[in-house]
User: Which sequence fits this backbone?
């Protein structure tokens, strides 16, 4: 994974990046630790990740200072985390993407914007090879060092055989899109204009799902990271719970985010002449190495959550190879327990343009439709 250069994603893990000296630097933004603090005294009360991290780091900022950077040699880091060279996160330091033609001209010289055309099957993933746990984990997942995930959850037969189809005919919205971190913007976002942030991207995704694929979508524009991102997940939970209680027919929940990466990393690819932001699916499993199972972050829908993100990733590999990053596994819950079909999507990063993010909505909607209908293109 890539080091996040600014404290834009306080809930995301400390990323790794390769330095020019051939070492690996691990950055804990704002003095934050990727370890989960002790649960002592917290029984019966669910704390937000932000609260828990502040408890653990209360005295650390004075000792280490903000923006502390710890440099480890690669061999020590591998040994400490139980990795080998083949299981290091796959994201490169710099994605050298050639200039992308965004527009074409007709015979009269007029500019014509390229339209999205859903892909047909490009390749078939060999599921038999993925019955091997290590192969499945290494090819499809990046697991944060704070947690681990075993064969009981990463079983390709269970992940692929889960029926995630829904009906488009039921009255009322079937899909909810919201944003725990609504203020996340892009390199060309306009200050104060939410249409140019991840919120606007969520609205565009909702329009595509409605107009092209026939779903009914509720795009919730509540803000939970203003004036601060602290406790955003705790603040969003009551409102999202209320929305789902008022709309019990909603079967799909999408928390749409924008990631944060190194300043010299550009998560983009040329998708049929359209500059398109790369994205990844994210899961929290309510389990850390330090605490084991986190009882007050119970998620009875975890198996379905994992199956949903896996099937989305599988379709992406077969129809849009290279567009998605590996599914990311972390140790907490991120309000993914509210529905079996819940996705947390990290769409692009702060270095992407708004156009690149908007363009990614087309393949995301296509992937969703294939998984939710059980059909092919």
Assistant:
């Amino acid at each position: 994974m890539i080091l996040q250069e600014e404290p834009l994603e306080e809930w995301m893990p400390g990323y790794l990046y390769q330095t020019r000296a051939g070492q690996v630097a691990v950055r804990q933004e704002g003095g934050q630790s990727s370890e989960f603090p002790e649960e002592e005294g917290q029984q019966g009360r669910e704390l937000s990740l932000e609260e828990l991290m502040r408890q653990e780091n209360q005295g650390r900022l004075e000792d280490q200072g903000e923006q502390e950077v710890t440099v480890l040699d690669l061999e020590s880091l591998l040994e400490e985390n139980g990795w080998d060279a083949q299981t290091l996160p796959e994201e490169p330091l710099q994605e050298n993407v050639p200039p992308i033609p965004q527009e074409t001209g007709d015979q009269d010289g007029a500019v014509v914007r390229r339209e999205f055309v859903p892909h047909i099957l490009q390749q078939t993933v060999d599921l038999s090879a993925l019955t091997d746990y290590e192969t499945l984990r290494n090819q499809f997942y990046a697991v944060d060092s704070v947690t681990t995930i075993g064969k009981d959850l990463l079983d390709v037969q269970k992940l692929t055989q889960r029926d995630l189809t829904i009906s488009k005919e039921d009255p009322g919205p079937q899909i909810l899109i919201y944003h725990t971190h609504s203020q996340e913007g892009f390199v060309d976002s306009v200050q104060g204009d939410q249409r140019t942030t991840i919120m606007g991207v969520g609205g565009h995704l909702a329009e595509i799902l409605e107009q092209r694929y026939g779903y009914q979508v509720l795009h919730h524009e509540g803000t939970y990271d203003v004036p601060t991102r602290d406790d955003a997940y705790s603040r969003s939970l009551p409102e999202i719970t209320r929305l789902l209680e008022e709309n019990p027919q909603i079967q799909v929940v999408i928390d749409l985010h924008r990631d944060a990466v190194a300043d010299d990393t550009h998560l983009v690819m040329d998708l049929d002449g359209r500059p398109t932001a790369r994205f990844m699916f994210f899961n929290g499993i309510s389990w850390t190495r330090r605490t084991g199972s986190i009882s007050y972050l119970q998620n009875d829908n975890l198996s379905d959550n994992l199956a949903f993100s896996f099937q989305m990733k599988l379709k992406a590999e077969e129809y849009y190879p290279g567009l998605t990053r590996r599914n990311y596994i972390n140790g907490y819950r991120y309000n993914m327990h509210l529905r079996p079909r819940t996705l947390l999507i990290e769409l692009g990063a702060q270095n992407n343009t708004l156009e690149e993010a908007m363009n990614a909505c087309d393949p995301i909607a296509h992937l969703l439709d294939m998984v939710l209908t059980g059909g092919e293109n």
